[in-house]
TrEMBL record:
Top-level EC class: hydrolase
Protein name: Phosphoribosyl-ATP pyrophosphatase
Keyword annotations from UniProtKB, A to Z: Amino-acid biosynthesis, ATP-binding, Cytoplasm, Histidine biosynthesis, Hydrolase, Nucleotide-binding
Protein species of origin: Paratractidigestivibacter faecalis
HAMAP family cross-referenced by the UniProt entry: HisE
Database matches in Pfam families: PRA-PH
Signal sequence segment: none
Cell compartment(s), UniProt: Cytoplasm
Gene: hisE
Pathway assigned to this chain's UniProt record: Amino-acid biosynthesis; L-histidine biosynthesis; L-histidine from 5-phospho-alpha-D-ribose 1-diphosphate: step 2/9
Keyword Nucleus: no
Molecular function in Gene Ontology: phosphoribosyl-ATP diphosphatase activity
Keyword ATP-binding assigned: yes
Entry similarity comment: Belongs to the PRA-PH family.
Catalytic activity annotation: 1-(5-phospho-beta-D-ribosyl)-ATP + H2O = 1-(5-phospho-beta-D-ribosyl)-5'-AMP + diphosphate + H(+)
Length: 105
């Protein structure tokens, strides 16, 4: 596990995800030597897909430890990698929102 994020304050999830999606989209044209995100977007498909499974496992382990801060940290890793995956396969956040809204009863 890496160093956990210190002094985390609540944010606005819509603004945060929208901003992060824009940064990730911009990394499509970035140098893989300089950007981890660019490597995930432009590199081997399986490297990215393996990260989803790995990060999901880390969330599960943090939950089994019932460690609040660790769950938040690993969920951040999982959401980031999921967003890179959505970018790579062309699924937008508005589209995802529509999918979730369509389920709302
Ligand atoms: N949100 C993230 C983000 N979350 C996680 N990561 C990276 O994802 C990798 C996680 O892989 P690992 O789980 O193997 O890493 P680890 O920390 O050693 O292991 P664990 O802590 O998960 O156990 C690390 O290299 C993290 O740096 C991220 N890398 C980038 N971003 C965002 O993407 C933007 C663009 O970053 P570049 O990739 O540098 O272009 C950044 O400004 C950030 O906003």
């Amino acid at each position: 596990m890496g160093v956990r994020t210190a002094n985390v304050q609540d944010g606005n999830i819509g603004e945060t995800l929208t901003g992060l999606a824009e940064v990730i989209h911009g990394r499509r044209e970035a140098s893989p030597e300089q950007s981890y995100t660019a490597r995930l977007l432009q590199g081997e498909e399986d490297e990215l897909l393996k990260k989803i499974a790995e990060e999901a496992s880390e969330v599960i382990m943090a939950c089994k430890d019932n460690d609040h801060d660790h769950i938040r940290y690993e969920a951040g890793d999982l959401v980031y990698h999921l967003m890179v995956t959505l970018e790579r396969y062309g699924v937008t956040l508005p589209e995802l929102a529509g999918e979730l809204d369509a389920r709302h009863k």
